[in-house]
Amino acid sequence: xxxxxxxxxxxxxxxxxxxxxxxxxxxxxxxxxxxxxxxxxxxxxxxxxxxxxxxxxxxxxxxxxxxxxxxxxxxxxxxxxxxxxxxxxxxxxxxxxxxxxxxxxxxxxxxxxxxxxxxxxxxxxxxxxxxxxxxxxxxxxxxxxxxxxxxxxxxxxxxxxxxxxxxxxxxxxxxxxxxxxxxxxxxxxxxxxxxxxxxxxxxxxxxxxxxxxxxxxxxxxxxxxxxxxxxxxxxxxxxxxxxxxxxxxxxxxxxxxxxxxxxxxxxxxxxxxxxxxxxxxxxxxxxxxxx
Length: 291
Known about the structure:
The chain is α/β, with parallel strands linked by helices. Helices cover about 45% and strands about 20% of the residues.
């Protein structure tokens, strides 16, 4: 998608974007059939206790929220600080105050693709008064990547690529920041990983965040994004550890995976089911297990 098309779409009022959401959802799900097989397979494996009708209802809600989230993310390009503080609420900011030791040290924040992860970035940074630098993987489409990078750089954030994250974080370890990592993507076959059972399935998790936390001695927490109404979100922080040296890497990732599963079960329709999260099988893994 063209960078300038994103910019043009961002100019539309949010109400008009929402008016476009219903026909776009129909086109995406029923006409294009966007990853229908992946969504249905992921839901069936994750919620065997649900009946077919219940899973179909979750899938239908998922597509509607997926389109809403995509449009909201584009709209974030034109949102003011007041807009973000109105639409995104941090429920327990005191935990971050404690974990940063009253603003004296950085914190590694683990996130999943649920709710609106882009709005969460800016909403939390503005309300907490702390810079949040997201770790990201560059997108294949140059226009999309340029737009996403500019979007994530608003309000003083400095996005860091996954390939350079460890080096960047170590170099700036004396700066007080929150490092946000969307670490629920499927690792590559040769990447270090921790295997566990998540939503009834063998699941590989990236271990890089735990490695970074132990190297920098940064506390670790999980940020849950809860959709309380259309275009309105709550953020709840969950402590994983204040002393990363007290836990092994796999113990931190295990805690993260359990918090992620709990968040997904709380609002299953808000998770990114179209992502091929479980494409890697344990018996296909080439890299040594991080267990």
